[in-house]
Amino acid sequence: MDNSVMSQAEAVRLMKAIAYNVERVIIGKRFAIELVINALSCRGHVLIEDVPGVGKTSLVSALAKSVDCTFKRIQFTPDIMPSDITGFSTFSLKTSDFEYKPGAVMSQFILADEINRTSPKTQSSLLEVMEENQVTVDGITYKVPKPFMVLATQNPVEYLGTYPLPEAQLDRFFMKVSLGYPNPAEESRMLARFKSGSPLADLTPVADGKAIESIQALTESVYVDRELQSYIVDIVRNTRQQEEVVLGASPRASLYLFRSSQAWALYQGRDFVVPDDITLMAPHVLGHRIMMRQEARMKKITPKDIIERALSSVSAPAL
Predict the structure, then answer these.
(1) How sure is the predictor about 66, in pLDDT bands with cuts at 50, 70 and 90?
(2) Does pLDDT of 176 surpass 60?
(3) pTM beyond cutoff 0.85
(4) Average pLDDT over residues 54-64
């Protein structure tokens, strides 16, 4: 099949096939898996935050194995250097010139494991590549392969030895996803499925890079009514106007909410967005971009509360 002319039905089939493949490893977390596929469909990057042992790394590994693309894992530690990420130039005696030695970021899928365990300087080495799909080393720019996606995992900042991600870094992530603990039935199913080895070893690709690029192009063609565009802007602006907020969602958040709504509509088999697509995606796209005042945190008011207020305050258009 020519992926350049992929039909909507074929795109939906592939997206659901990827979700099913990943779910063979990550049990009972279908919606979280679908959120990651949503970000992939929008050329976005995902921050997966949760406590250790709930399957963050396994989810990323399963996604990479489900798509026939290059994959590299970077284990972030306090001593890792920016050049380990972006690469560096070295002098070659053979050519009498400097040659670029690619860093770990030169791959299609990047797992930035425990990203908050490295220094802010090393964290910031991902800023350019996450925004512009390129790295600059010694004044020379190098493009990363397409499709390109960074999936970062982090443990909550309450754990010792972590460095909270700066606001500029957080804003580069398309959305933040949490897995949470499985319920008793899901945990029992996990034990049964993993008793004779990890199902991750048996996963085979169900899509390739060209198919993903076609899905990304189809996502951008999903229709969003002008009134829904205004609805998105009003929701995001409302998060900036609430008194408990020191930093509301950015204009980039408006664009990402727009894109994620398109991707969710496509995943549902539609070529147009409805208000429910926007309200469903808003908490996952906006939550990590909202910074609360200290007094609000003491009152246990969270970004989720701010988003719920925004959604209830802004009237959805009747289409």
Answers:
(1) very high
(2) yes
(3) yes
(4) 88
Q: Which CATH class is domain 3-216?
A: alpha beta
Strand partners, 71: 109
- The domain limits of the chain are 3-216, 222-313
Are 176 and 72 spatial neighbours (Cβ–Cβ below 8 Å)?
no
Residue type, 88: F
**Rounded CA gap, 26 and 283, in Å?**
22
CATH for 222-313 is: 1.10.8.80
- Strand ranges across the sheet with 71-75: 71-75, 109-113, 149-154, 46-49, 175-177
Pair 82, 126: CB distance under 8 Å:
no
pLDDT (mean) for 174-203: 86
Torsion (CA) 88, 91, 94, 95 in degrees, nearest 10: 80
